[in-house]
């Protein structure tokens, strides 16, 4: 039994044709774009923008978003080609199975738990903190002991667990219903983002954008022992890009829904690239307005820079609306991440690499309901008991690793299967996939050493599970 055995393209396409026996095809191209926007616009836009401006790029944080978007575009183009060729649930896991073999597919499937499951937990924790801010507008609050992790002085983070459970139950109810709710949330946050840009534009102070690219200051340690990263110049813009890159995490979740798309060959590229393009434009405009309303240095350590900047406009009655939009944004991100993870495990179960439990479809709702319940419990444990700072970097390094393998997969497929039908083709091969790999590994290199250690521990656990269960029960090897 070879661990490098690949699943043929014919087998994957046959699985896609038999999807009416499993997952329901209900998502249009428009719904897929909304799914992508729902996954992308969230914590990154409302939190990381101010931090990147204050710590690294200054007003040029807009250029950091552009640089990060270019890196994501390389990976997005590769995702789009694969999704149009292999319209099967499973995202990078499925693509790796077809190009690099079963063992690599297992590794990437296990790695996606870091991106989707822990990503949902991370955003769930942020959702809980913003819920408390909303309640404070009405003179109420959730006691700290029930809204923070034990390491932060609390007992359990109940709001984070609540939102994870509610959205998991919604996903069990059905993909179409989940997409409908996601569309409402996407419209809500887009309206508020556009209001922020339009109203805030009138109050921009041009002096706050001078100099647009601050003078370069190398990384150093202050007299108090505080570590300060690179600031200003092109290096500062690049460091900012490494931070705001995480604001783009989520567009790949569109590819996990390929088996539920009405016309995946057309809809997948539109969903992936369309959501990425729309969010990039909004990110650049949003960050330009935000740094024009308040001097970027004032965002230092500010967890809610958007609210701080918007207060300058005097539209205080919209502050509550802004918090509601942020909650809507976080909700849709959690929804899409939970959906993405359940579809990856659904695919791995169908391949025999995980117990049949994860591939069971609900007779009425046609969703992988047992997988949804499993991740409702799994994600709730992390959301309720682990601090957000310990979750974030694990999510980022897992995502970058997945992106780099997808880019590598395009190079392999172009060489091994040059004549396979592709309704969408990555332009400028091999430049685009190689550039995607380089950017991803550069950003992984920039992450703290603890992130690499946690990734290695997680992967060691995954490899052990593969040889104990997956290799023995693999349908392809048997």
Walk me through this protein's architecture.
- The chain has 478 residues and is mainly α.
- It is 65% helix and 1% strand.
- It has helices at 9-17, 29-40, 43-57, 61-85, 92-99, 102-136, 158-173, 175-201, 233-244, 264-293, 305-310, 319-350, 369-385, 388-416, 431-445, 449-473; strands at 220-221, 227-228.
- The chain has a two-stranded antiparallel sheet with strand order 1-2.
- Helix 3 (43-57) crosses helix 10.
- The chain is globular and about 65 Å long.
- It starts with 8 loop residues before the first helix and ends in a 5-residue tail after the last helix.
- The mean pLDDT is 81.
Characteristic key phrases:
single chain; 478 residues; mainly alpha; two-stranded antiparallel sheet; 16 helices; 2 strands; 65% helix
Task: Outline the secondary-structure elements.
Layout lengths: L8 H9 L11 H12 L2 H15 L3 H25 L6 H8 L2 H35 L21 H16 L1 H27 L18 E2 L5 E2 L4 H12 L19 H30 L11 H6 L8 H32 L18 H17 L2 H29 L14 H15 L3 H25 L5
Antiparallel strand pairs: 1-2
What's the short story on this structure?
This protein has 478 residues and is mainly α. The protein contains 16 helices and two strands. β1 (220-221) and β2 form a beta hairpin.
């Amino acid at each position: 039994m070879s661990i490098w055995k690949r699943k043929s393209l014919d087998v994957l396409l046959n699985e896609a044709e038999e999807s009416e026996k499993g997952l329901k095809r209900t998502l249009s191209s428009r719904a897929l774009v909304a799914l992508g926007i729902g996954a992308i616009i969230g914590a990154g836009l409302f939190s990381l923008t101010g931090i990147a401006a204050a710590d690294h790029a200054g007003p040029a944080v807009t250029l950091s978003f552009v640089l990060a978007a270019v890196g994501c575009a390389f990976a997005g183009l590769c995702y789009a080609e694969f999704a149009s060729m292999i319209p099967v649930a499973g995202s990078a896991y499925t693509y790796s199975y077809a190009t690099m073999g079963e063992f690599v597919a297992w590794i990437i499937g296990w790695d996606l738990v870091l991106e989707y499951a822990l990503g949902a937990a991370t955003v769930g924790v942020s959702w809980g903190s913003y819920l408390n801010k909303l309640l404070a507008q009405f003179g109420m609050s959730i006691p700290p002991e029930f809204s923070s992790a034990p390491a932060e002085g609390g007992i359990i983070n109940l709001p984070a667990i609540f939102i994870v459970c509610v959205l998991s139950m919604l996903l069990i109810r059905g993909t179409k219903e989940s997409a409908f709710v996601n569309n409402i949330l996407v419209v809500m946050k887009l309206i508020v983002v556009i209001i922020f840009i339009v109203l805030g534009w009138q109050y921009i102070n041009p002096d706050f954008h001078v100099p647009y690219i601050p003078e370069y200051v190398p990384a150093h340690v202050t007299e108090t022992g505080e570590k300060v990263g690179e600031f200003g110049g092109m290096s500062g813009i690049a460091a900012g890009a490494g931070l705001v890159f995480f604001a783009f995490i989520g567009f790949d979740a569109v590819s996990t829904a390929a088996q539920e798309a009405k016309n995946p060959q057309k809809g997948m590229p539109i969903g992936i690239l369309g959501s990425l393009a729309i969010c990039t434009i909004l990110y650049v405009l949003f960050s330009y307005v935000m740094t024009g309303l308040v001097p970027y240095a004032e965002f230092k350590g500010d967890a809610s820079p958007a609210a701080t900047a918007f207060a300058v406009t005097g539209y205080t009655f919209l502050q509550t609306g802004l918090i509601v939009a942020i909650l809507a944004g976080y909700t849709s991100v959690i929804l899409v991440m939970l959906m993405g993870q359940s579809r990856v495990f659904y695919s791995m179960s169908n391949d025999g690499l995980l117990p049949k439990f994860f591939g069971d479809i609900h007779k009425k709702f046609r969703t992988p309901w047992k997988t949804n319940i499993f991740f409702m419990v799994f994600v709730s444990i992390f959301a309720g008991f682990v601090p957000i700072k310990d979750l974030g970097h694990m999510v980022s390094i897992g995502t970058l690793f997945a992106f780099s393998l997808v880019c590598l997969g395009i190079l392999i497929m172009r060489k091994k299967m040059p004549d396979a039908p592709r309704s969408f083709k990555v332009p400028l091969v091999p430049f685009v996939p190689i550039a995607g790999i380089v950017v991803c590994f550069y950003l992984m290199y920039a992450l703290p050493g603890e992130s690499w250690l946690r990734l290695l521990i997680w992967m060691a656990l995954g490899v052990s599970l593969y040889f104990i269960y997956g290799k023995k029960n693999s349908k392809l090897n048997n």
